Amino acid sequence: MTKNRLYCGDNLEILATMEKESVDLIYIDPPFFSNRNYEIIWGDEAEVRSFEDRWEGGINVYIAWMKERLMELYRVLKLSGSFYLHCYSVAAFCIVSRMK
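^ that's the sequence the OP posted. Answer follows.
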């Protein structure tokens, strides 16, 4: 694995190629589970970006989706490494309480 590189893509596929305890820093910004639809006007209103942050099956489906990724992230994180999770506060509480 190349050092000092930003990887873009399906994190499960990329993580599967990485060695155990090989990463110093992990920052993730996954879907928030805010249960909202978003429409954002970009720039001069000529471009509208929209996305849904809703999960069919609710919080349990979201947590299962996150858990699979978090387990792999934990596997590659060095014991001295740092992990930052950016997500909606309700989802963060559910994630942390179920991962302990």
